[in-house]
Amino acid sequence: MTPVTGPLGGLLAAPPQVVAAGVGVFSDALRTQGVSVTDVEWRPPTLGDADDLTVLALDPRRATANRTAVERVLAAGSVLTDVLPAREVLDLPERTLLHSGPPLSWETASGPMRGAFIGACLFEGWADDAAAAERMLAAGEVAFDPCHHHRTVGPMAGVVSPSMWMWCLEDPVHGGRAFSSLNEGLGKVLRMGAYSAEVVDRLHWMTRTLGPVLQRAVRSRAEDPLDVKGVLAQMLQMGDEGHNRNRAGSLMTLRELSPAIVEVDAPASDIGAVLRFIGGNEHFFLNLGMPTAKLAMDAARDVPGSTMVTVLARNGTEFGIQTAGTGGRWFTGPAQTPVGLFLGDYGPDDANPDIGDSAIMETYGVGGFSMAAAPAIVRFVGGTVPDALATTERMYQITLAENPAMAIPVLGFRGAPTGIDVVAVARTGWLPQINTGMAGRVAGTGQVGAGLVQPPPECFTGALAALAAAARAAAV
Amino acid sequence: MATPVASRRVSAPTTTPDISDGVRHVSLRSGVYADSVRLMQVSRDAGSGDGVTAVLVAMATPLNLELAASMGLAPDGDASPEQLLIAVRARDDEALAAALAAVEAALAHRERSTGTAGAVPVRTVGAALDDAAPDASVLAVVSVPGPYAVAEALDAVAAGRSVLVFSDGVPVEHEVGLKQAARRAGVLVMGPDCGTAIVSGVALGFANVVRPGPVGLVAASGTGAQQVSCLLDAAGVGVSHVLGVGGRDLSAAVGGLATLDALAALDADPATERVLLVSKPPAPSVAEAVAEAAAGLATPVRSAVLSADSPDLTAAVEALLGDLGVDVPAWPSRPGQGTAAPGAVLKGFYSGGTLADEAMLLAAATLGDVRSNTPLRPELDPALDWGTDHAARGHVVVDFGDDALTVGRAHPMIDPALRLEAVAGLAASGEPAVLLLDVVLGHGADPDPSVTLVPVLSGAPFPVVVALVGTEADPQCWSRQADALAGAGAAVFASNAAATRHALTLLGAAS
After folding, report:
1. Which residues, including other chains, have CB under 8 Å from residue B480's CB and lie 6 or more apart?
2. Which of A322, B30, B97, B203 lies in disulfide reach of A311, CB 3.0 to 4.6 Å?
3. Do A40 and B201 touch (CB under 8 A)?
4. Where exactly are the structural domains of chain A?
5. In angstroms, rounded to a whole number, what is the distance separating the alpha carbons of residues B496 and B227?
6. What is the ipTM of this complex?
7. Is B200 on the interface with A (CB under 8 A)?
8. What homologous superfamily does CATH list for A77-290?
9. A392-448 tens-digit pLDDT
10. Chain B positions in Cβ-Cβ contact with residue A9 (cut-off 8 Å)
């Protein structure tokens, strides 16, 4: 950058170019003078209080705090270190189920969330049938807690029970750890709210065979652990956006792990089944991508004055966000129903409101934010290629940085828009764009489609007010 | 993926003199990643510098570390593949520093999007400035509604750019915060509520086309700056810059933050030989600080402070012309028609607040306190509510540019409707009067104000006096407007003080 010389940044050194926001008559007057004018297409903010916005804009801590927060996000790494049952790695009290999104109760839980809770009770053997499980859950005999409170992220319902095997990932830069369950595949699966025998049987097979085989394979690479961030970076070069398309990432993971899997001392039929399962699941990588994003966002927790979003998560009833400047406090609003395409005969009436911790991918700048990297799926979520490019371009205006590790080829290898700024969301009125799967509204249905969704504005209005209150308190 | 995970310790950069082979720099950096093709380009760009003998900028993979070792540029301590290795050997320290700067610049280079330009609107000043060339002289102009103006203006400050804030309605504590941030960033905030500036000949907001020249203006008053710069132009003296600071800058709360920075910048500006400070009376503590700062400058500073003691901007311009050794010209004017009826009162209908103040200050000597929506002495004289009392009788001066009269409508320099209605109302009222108006020309203003004024003034049953603030080079052309207004019977003056005195003379003749 050529340094600008003279006082006031060289203001008086040469006739200025102008960036103008507001009344058009001044821009017109400048153009008649032959001045180069860039007009800002300013709109009155549609969410948040104007004084809150100004207080945050003026907060002298904010620029540095946001830089600190986003630099931690960018610097964070992610390696796969182990595979263990949830009860061995998580601080999980007895008879507790983890779930996606902000806190909820049985009464407020949506259909697919209830279905997943029922399925988990059946899988753990806490109940003999669905009716018994439902009675037990309604009676409050099982405690619920958000995954995010346990350094864990779960796609869709995100239900984790003590016997489920978890990916264990570490951030070698900051030393953080994060966890996610193993992905079950598509269709009738627990995370979509299905709990039929087929679903529970698969969970048992995963516990009996998949988990232990993966554990031994991953541990055999202790000296050379899988660099999951590296896989995510490469996926974006291969048509994945890391949320709704994980095809390349899943294949790369299979390629990386299969030699170690084959070397595990287990019956050939088990090895074959494991390899077939991974190879047949295009979303296998999602449960590795999510804790990778979680590691990065957790690295930026608790930076006073930062207005960066650290969590976007939905529980099927409510959407919740957290920010670096407000710690573990949730700011919630009603979850919206995604708009997109439906499988088979399903239609919009069959879709449950937004659900899952997988929006951690967007929080990290991939997924819907890097839609431009994944033209192959834009039609699947009901969009067009120009929409995808425009979506990513918009997200640059609500984020703090571009992640050089996550380059988007079609945008000239520009880094993914990373680090959502609550203030920028309020000022532009552009809510984060999330790519998502859609679960059936009725418990037990499974997946009904995929599409696009946004957080409700209430999350950002609430976060903005709390951040402004903190800024006012800090100024006193 | 087969990447050994070793210690993540970041080794300190080592710059080791090497007698046989120049100097070298080897460092490892975490949190930076770029693909190998990009890094090859970075290495190539940095390696093309004079005196640079070897450059390797690469991820610290085993292969690249081996390569670095073969070049004699191995890092000390452990390296991991997530780290970026920066290794340079050069002839001397100077070449090494240049190569490292080139590496930094190449790494910081942001890839531009292709093929989608213009697809997405730019919603904030910050986003627009992201796209501006870093070495260009860029200024932001913010005229969004007051409650949102500070956030947009701060985008400019954060980007190291000066900003003009036209918006009013910004709480004073936010103005202070904004201007303190600007001082920390070394840039200027003109405003809030700054209507006028000229930077290197570029007119911002309401400003006239004046010739370039040696006088720099610092103005806490927009129409005051327009009056002064137009009179200077009429005397053949040009301006270097007009830096508006906003009407509250010299208040005790703001403390002259922008005025002091603007004075210093003009002092350092080679084009500026004289500085004229145009304002209403500052808070005493601020006046002292400004006077002290002005005394410390190499460039002579004269003040045109409008007050009961010095009620006349034209006189201040004449004094400055004296400083410059320039003869005071006969200020342009056109004679008017008609005489005032017995018992006539002064009706001053103004669009410029400072010009209204000047008229009231000059009138006070003969008429005493004048009723106004912006009274000179609010403590003695409750403000006239023009919205409910637009038929107020007696001597009245109304500032139609006051915030209360511009809510939901454009400034009277752009939209004359409210004032034209007032003139028609006065004519219909039958109250004997002398009507005193300002008409301000220049960029941003009504493109042809005489078109709407002439029909209203032609039939007026009272004499009309117009202070016509502008220059021959303005888009509206001073003499064309003056001739049209004189044709409708108005007396026209380039000087507001002269216009006011003429109106007072007409009133005196009638009494």
Report:
1. B450
2. A322
3. no
4. 7-42, 57-74+300-475, 77-290
5. 8
6. 0.88
7. yes
8. Enterococcus faecalis V583 domain (3.90.1710.10)
9. 999 999 999 999 999 999 999 999 999 999 999 999 999 999 999 899 999 888 888
10. 160-162, 185-187
